[in-house]
Write a structure and sequence with these properties.
Number of domains: 4
CATH architecture of the largest domain: 3-Layer(aba) Sandwich
Distance between the termini: 54 Å
Largest sheet: 7 strands, mixed
CATH topology of the largest domain: Rossmann fold
Radius of gyration: 27 Å
Helix content: 25-40%
Number of helices: 18
Oligomer: single chain
């Protein structure tokens, strides 16, 4: 059986009972029994990704609906309101019931705790493990409960090709945590970029001078910088290594921003650090931790990963596990005012492919810890700077860290307050082998009333696409591809001419950016997501320094095109502070409302689009994209002409930058 996006609607289910984890649901007419299936996003394309799911038929699921867990859909890039393609198939792969399964903890945790959790897990029996065609079994990771494992071995392992392995009641499971005789080489990459100086974290130290306690027990929390939290946690790691027996750990500490600086040892090698380490070496590590501080520089994570890999290759010991621990807030911020300095993450796509190579070919694992979160940052900012709005680049953003962990074979990216660091470093301890109790079969749960409601909502949106719909999708995809090419070409000219891109990086990956543009808009909410993406990418991300530096007035005039300001007015009118809970506070002022209405009339001939007018929202989306394409086309033509021949003759009136 094969189901495809061309004929079915994907329902992303949040907080489900029937649809949860790797369980997906369909109407009984498609299948009478539970069965494994492979769900693939973007089939036939270079960015295709596949996950195995257990397909569960249920009478509550309407025809034409495939219901999947929201997190699973997110991992496959099947985001809401996006014109993406997918297919689900129940054949074309081998299905094997496991006799034995040997797992290794991806991160050192309490082995007793994880084994007890597996013994209690009623979903363990029936868990599916997917091996793509040509992939070695040792490269497979498996998330069970809240722990991540690597598959060390399994049986039977006959044949090759695409295979789905299934844990059954008779499967014998063992969990292995590396023992004291096997070593590990660890390179700690400490983010020392400018945003690490923000003091938005709670001080978790005991005010009486004691040890570390949970911050929520303290009624009056002192704030500390992200760098201070990093230093404390590294000192905590050192104390643990000096007091606990365990794996032989060789450690290096590297500070990074736009450059990499070996902090310990200073000669750029590695040193063993445990209870037998010399006093002089211990003090050297303490001193190195104390010297970590935020610098007014940006963040080059790709360069840091390359540096760590070279260090492990040069100084690591054969046979030891190789581990990179990346600690960063993920913030991307830019200059604002005379006293601030700028920061941006450089080369977002390259670190991901680099880390995938390091993990696949050099067996280097990556663990990433994201410091602070938007939920922590916003209350602190509002209290510290009342009445002001933070620059979006100041807000912690762990999208890149999460993606790096995904391809680097590490544990899911952790984010949060100082306790996240303490808990992580406390977990670098010892381990042995434990056998898990025989998995027990449990019935598939019934869907909750909320799940059924979500099915119903999606079913109401199902429409069989006709020739007109397919033609519009083709036009939308083609126009978005042209915009992507124009965007990259314009930034390329600016970097070559003034070493500054026209548009600052937004923190989104290229893939997420393209998907959001290609989202087929048919609802008011969908248009809000779309216009926010357009505004953040093409208006708010404009770099004023590139405008001021560019020698060609023709280019500056094209870059200051009023149509971008027009689209910003539409964003303010349609998606002004949509996150505010009070609808009355979401309305823009009358002046902005009037301008937005005028722009709508220019774009689609009306000053207001009704919430239920799906065709109207789609027409507005196409009109916005045509404006963006036209602006970028003019900008590229001006930049190309300026690169071929310098301008001469009198200059016209001085151009003014308009925010």
């Amino acid at each position: 059986m094969k189901l495809q996006s061309a004929a079915m609607k994907l329902a992303r289910v949040a907080g489900g009972q029937l649809v949860a984890g790797s369980r997906a649901a369909i109407a009984p007419r498609y299948s009478a029994i539970d069965m494994p299936a492979v769900l693939t996003s973007y089939p036939g394309q270079t960015n295709a990704e596949s996950q195995v799911v257990r397909l569960c038929p249920h009478r509550s699921v309407p025809d034409g609906i495939l219901a999947v867990d929201e997190d699973l859909a997110g991992r496959l890039g099947l985001s809401a309101d996006l014109a993406v393609t997918w297919e689900l198939r129940t054949d074309g792969f081998r299905r094997v019931q496991l006799r034995e399964l040997f797992l290794e903890l991806a991160v050192e945790q309490s082995l007793e705790d994880v084994v007890q959790a597996l013994n209690r897990d009623r979903t363990l029996c029936g868990t599916l493990i997917y091996r793509p065609d040509g992939e070695d079994i040792s490269s497979i990771s498996l998330e069970l409960g809240e722990a991540l494992y690597r598959v060390r071995n399994l049986a039977p392992l006959d044949g090759t090709g695409e295979t789905v392995f299934e844990i059954v009641e008779t499967t014998q499971i063992q969990v292995f945590a590396p023992g004291a005789k096997s070593g590990v080489d660890i390179v700690i990459l400490a983010d020392c970029s400018g945003s690490m100086d923000f003091a938005d974290l709670n001080d978790t130290s005991d005010s009486t001078g004691g040890g570390l306690i949970r911050s929520f027990l303290q009624p009056n929390k002192r704030k500390m910088t992200r760098s201070e939290a990093l230093r404390r946690s590294l000192k905590h790691l050192l104390d643990l290594r000096l007091s606990l027996p365990g794996r032989v750990s060789r450690i290096a500490l590297v500070a990074f921003s736009t450059r990499c600086v070996p902090m310990f040892p200073r000669d750029g090698s590695m040193r063993e650090m445990d209870e037998s380490a010399p006093v002089v070496l211990i003090q050297e590590f303490r001193d190195a931790i104390g010297l970590l501080c935020a610098e007014q520089e940006g963040t080059n994570i790709g360069q840091a990963l390359q540096y760590a890999a070279e260090l492990l290759h040069r100084s690591g010991r054969p046979g030891n596990d190789r581990l990179i621990v990346l600690i960063s807030d993920g913030a991307h911020w830019q200059p604002k005012g005379d006293e601030a300095t700028g920061e941006e993450t450089i080369a977002i796509d390259e670190p991901i492919s680099l880390m995938a190579h390091l993990h696949r070919d050099l067996k280097i694992h990556l663990h990433a810890i994201g410091i602070s979160t938007p939920e922590i940052f916003h209350p602190w900012f509002q209290q510290t700077y009342p009445g002001q709005q933070p620059n979006g680049s100041m807000i912690p953003n762990h999208e890149l860290l999460t993606e790096l962990v995904r391809v680097g074979g590490g544990d899911p990216s952790r984010t949060g307050d100082a306790q996240v660091l303490e808990a992580y470093f406390s977990g670098l301890a010892t381990g042995v082998v434990r056998r898990v109790d025989s998995p027990r079969q449990s019935p598939v749960p019934e869907p909750s009333s909320d799940e059924v409601a979500q099915f119903t909502v999606v079913a109401a949106q199902v429409q069989q696409p006709g020739a007109k719909d397919r033609a519009e999708n083709v036009e939308l995809n083609a126009m978005c591809d042209e915009i992507q090419e124009l965007y990259e070409a314009c930034d390329g000219y600016a970097k070559a001419e003034v070493q500054t891109p026209f548009f600052r990086p937004t923190g989104r990956s290229r893939r997420a950016f393209t998907h959001l543009l290609k989202s087929a808009v048919t609802t008011e909410q969908g248009f809000q997501v779309f216009i926010l993406t357009v505004d953040q990418t093409f208006f708010e991300a404009r770099d004023k320094s590139a405008f001021e530096k560019y020698p060609s007035e023709t280019v500056r005039r094209a870059f200051a095109d009023e149509r971008l300001s027009d689209l910003h007015a539409v964003r303010i009118m349609q998606a002004h502070d949509t996150e505010l809970p009070d609808p009355s506070r979401r309305q823009p002022n009358q002046r902005t409302q009037r301008r937005g209405s005028e722009v709508l009339r220019r774009l689609v001939g009306v000053s207001h689009v009704e919430a239920a007018d799906s065709a109207g929202w789609q027409r507005l989306q196409f009109a916005v994209l045509r404006d963006i394409k036209s602006v970028l086309t003019d900008l590229r033509a001006a930049a190309l002409a300026g690169a071929q021949r310098p301008e001469s003759g009198p200059q016209s009136e001085t151009l003014v930058w308009r925010d």
